[in-house]
């Protein structure tokens, strides 16, 4: 399979999105095969900063465990983690999560760039970074750092995105490996999970 | 890009030259703070950054300020304050004296929020609020009790959501884009530097708040800090953490019972 050549042993997939990406996840999650051998981390810009029901919503679409991160939670494969509202999500070298409530980055907290960079530091070439729909430029710089550490980059096909700007911006400014629609993304992630 | 080894060198300098020990801070976040400072201050090389830090004690202030995250607000997480009002404070009312410790109080918004809650419960007169932080600059601000006027709309909304029934603006006077909170609120506050890494327990408290500070520590330092709190909380006293922090990974957990969905634990043994 072509995907297998892109990456050998994928340990983590980090997905970032903004406006229009919850809809994408609601389609993507049910298409993922369970059990999952890797870990998925999701970082979303959210309008309502106190809304903690998003994890429940995502959880209702899959049998894979979905969990909103608390500080120092260990990263357990087979789990989908969601960055909590109002904190940056970081990963430590010993594979526990750290949260950080410092300044917004790209007007956002959580910021996609922050998590992408931190995940790149920890997972290097075993990481896939996926950028979904959105109306701002957050994520592109982080994808470049993932690539610098040997990881693989995916962007949502802009014409399938409710807000095309964010994936488009990444396609123009980062060495994206694959531009995929939601169905293709699911196939791709399932193939990563299987080859492990 | 700043490498792990550079971070170690700076942490070493900070400890050897100034006695500040950041080695058990959560690395991922610390790395971001150091990189940010390095970029903001436009050093041509990391060696020059280190040289400045080691040779200029004035620059240390800036580094401490840069490494610590001091983001805070009044009535942050309003539902937390609601739980304080309805479930915690009433159980302290019968005490002759109420001692509270705000560890990592930053610029004081949390302490002033607490003073308002206590005042509204008619308990402020018999309370003492110890507010500590490792960063002397934020304590100076906290002591003044002066905050930007632009924040008040948000704080007032938080206050109302927390169950506040008064006119929030009655607690301060506005002038030149700043507000000064009522002196009577500050009367029972004691501000002091205290480093959770190296300083000891200094009193026994009915309630300790340490919110959004532990997230910057690694697990080992969290454990040390939580034990320090445990030594400083009397039986049936309370410990309140930030909304994404937990006792779950700590050895003191067995002695505590979590009260509700908010991050408040009561010492039961
Ligand atoms: C993000 S603020 C939290 C303020 C407030 N508690 C809140 O939740 O809004 C974190 C504070 O912890 C302080 N801090 C960091 N390390 C500390 C240490 N070792 N000892 C005491 N305070 C520390 C920082 O200086 C900063 O003011």
TrEMBL record, chain A:
Residues 6-196 form the CheB-type methylesterase domain. GO terms for biological process: chemotaxis. The lineage of its organism: Bacteria, Pseudomonadati, Bacteroidota, Cytophagia, Cytophagales. The keyword Hydrolase applies. This is protein-glutamate methylesterase. It is an enzyme of class 3 (hydrolase). The keyword Hydrolase applies. Gene3D superfamilies: Methylesterase CheB, C-terminal domain (3.40.50.180). Its EC number is 3.1.1.61. The active site is at residues 18, 45, 138. It comes from Larkinella punicea. GO terms for cellular component: cytoplasm.
UniProtKB/TrEMBL annotation, chain B:
The lineage of its organism: Bacteria, Pseudomonadati, Bacteroidota, Cytophagia, Cytophagales. Residues 1-247 form the CheR-type methyltransferase domain. This is Protein-glutamate O-methyltransferase CheR. GO terms for molecular function: S-adenosylmethionine-dependent methyltransferase activity. SMART domains: MeTrc. PANTHER family: CHEMOTAXIS PROTEIN (PTHR24422:SF8), CHEMOTAXIS PROTEIN METHYLTRANSFERASE (PTHR24422). PROSITE patterns: CHER. SUPFAM superfamilies: Chemotaxis receptor methyltransferase CheR, N-terminal domain, S-adenosyl-L-methionine-dependent methyltransferases. It comes from the Bacteria. GO terms for biological process: methylation. Keywords: Methyltransferase, Transferase.
């Amino acid at each position: 399979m072509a995907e297998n050549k892109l990456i050998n042993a994928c340990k983590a997939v980090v997905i970032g999105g903004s406006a229009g990406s919850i809809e994408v996840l609601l389609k993507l999650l049910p298409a993922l095969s369970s059990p999952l051998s890797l870990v998925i981390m999701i970082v979303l810009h959210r309008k309502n900063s106190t809304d903690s029901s998003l994890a429940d919503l995502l959880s209702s679409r899959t049998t894979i465990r979905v969990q909103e991160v608390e500080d120092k939670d260990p990263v357990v494969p087979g789990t989908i983690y969601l960055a909590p509202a109002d904190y940056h999500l970081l990963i430590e070298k010993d594979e526990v999560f750290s949260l950080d409530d410092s300044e917004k980055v790209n007007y956002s907290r959580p910021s996609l760039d922050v998590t992408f960079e931190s995940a790149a530091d920890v997972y290097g070439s075993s990481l896939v970074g996926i950028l979904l729909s959105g109306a701002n430029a957050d994520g592109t710089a982080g994808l470049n750092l993932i690539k610098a550490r040997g990881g693989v980059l995916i962007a949502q096909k802009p014409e399938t995105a409710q807000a095309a700007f964010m994936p488009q911006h990444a396609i123009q400014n980062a060495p994206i490996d694959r531009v995929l629609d939601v169905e293709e993304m699911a196939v791709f992630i399932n193939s990563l999970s299987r080859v492990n | 890009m700043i490498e792990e080894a550079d971070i170690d060198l700076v942490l070493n300098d900070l400890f050897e030259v100034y006695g500040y020990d950041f080695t058990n801070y959560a690395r991922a976040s610390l790395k971001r703070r150091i990189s940010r400072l390095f970029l903001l201050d436009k050093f041509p090389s990391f060696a020059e950054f280190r040289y400045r830090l080691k040779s200029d004690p004035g620059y240390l202030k800036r580094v401490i300020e840069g490494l610590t995250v001091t983001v805070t607000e009044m009535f942050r997480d309003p539902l937390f304050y609601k739980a304080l009002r309805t479930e915690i404070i009433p159980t302290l009312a019968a005490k002759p004296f109420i001692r509270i410790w705000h560890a990592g109080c930053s610029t004081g918004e949390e302490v002033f929020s607490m003073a308002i809650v206590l005042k509204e419960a008619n308990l402020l007169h018999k309370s003492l609020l110890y507010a500590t932080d490792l960063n002397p600059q934020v304590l100076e601000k906290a002591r003044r009790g002066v905050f930007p006027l632009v924040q008040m709309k948000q704080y007032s909304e938080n206050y109302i959501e927390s169950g506040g029934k008064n006119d929030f603006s009655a607690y301060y006077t506005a002038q030149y884009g700043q507000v000064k909170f009522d002196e009577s609120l500050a009367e029972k506050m004691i501000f002091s530097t205290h480093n959770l890494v190296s300083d000891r327990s200094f009193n026994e408290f009915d309630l300790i708040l340490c919110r959004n500070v532990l997230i910057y520590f690694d697990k080992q330092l969290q454990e040390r800090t939580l034990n320090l709190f445990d030594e400083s909380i009397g039986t049936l006293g309370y410990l309140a953490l930030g909304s994404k922090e937990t006792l779950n990974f700590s050895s003191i957990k067995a002695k505590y019972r979590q009260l509700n969905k908010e991050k408040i634990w009561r010492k039961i043994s």
